[in-house]
Amino acid sequence: MDEAGLKLERLKREEEAGVPPSPTDYQFALAFDSNGFTITDIRSRRCEAVVTRWADICRATAFKRDLFAIDCICVRFGLLDGTEIEVDEDMAGWKRFLEVLPHQLSGCKPQSEWFSTVALPPFAANPIQIYVHAAV
User: Do 128 and 62 contact (CB within 8 A), yes or no?
Assistant: First the structure.
C-alpha cells in the first residue's frame, strides 16, 4: 500500500476509535446531532463554525469535483432561505455524516444507492439528487 493509502487507513481507524481530528490531517471537521450539523475550520480558531439545521434543508445533491489529479466527492445542501452549504469527503467526520443523513433527512438516499453513480466515471461531475423535502 502506498503512503496515501496508509494515511487513509490510519484516519479511518482514528475516526472509528473516536480520536479527535488533527489540524495536520484536516482543514475542516463535521459534527452533527439531532438538530443539525456544524462545519468547523480546525486550523483557524478565528473562523466561526457554520451551523445548519436539518429542518432548514430542502434538497441535497451529491456530485464530484475534478481536482485535476484526483476527484473529491461532495454533497451540496439547498436551504429554505435560498443559500447553499457544501460538505466533502476531505472533512473529518465525513463517513459518519453520510451514515446519519438518511436518518436525519427522511427520504434521503443512503450512500450505497448513489456513491458509484457519482464516483464513476472518474473526472466527471456526475450529479445526482439524493434528497428533496416533500414540501418543495
Answer: yes
Name the grid cell of 129.
439528487
Domain count, the chain: 1
Nearest residue to 129 (alpha-carbon basis) of 82, 63, 73: 63
pLDDT tens digits, one per residue of 42-99: 888 777 889 999 999 999 999 999 887 788 999 999 999 999 999 999 999 999 999 9
Q: To the nearest 10°, the Cα dihedral for 4, 7, 130, 37?
A: -140
Entry pTM: 0.85
φ/ψ of 67, rounded to 5, equals -105, 35
On whether the CB atoms of residues 130 and 102 are closer than 8 A, the answer is no
CB 58 within 8 A of CB 136: yes
Residue 26 sits in which domain range?
3-132
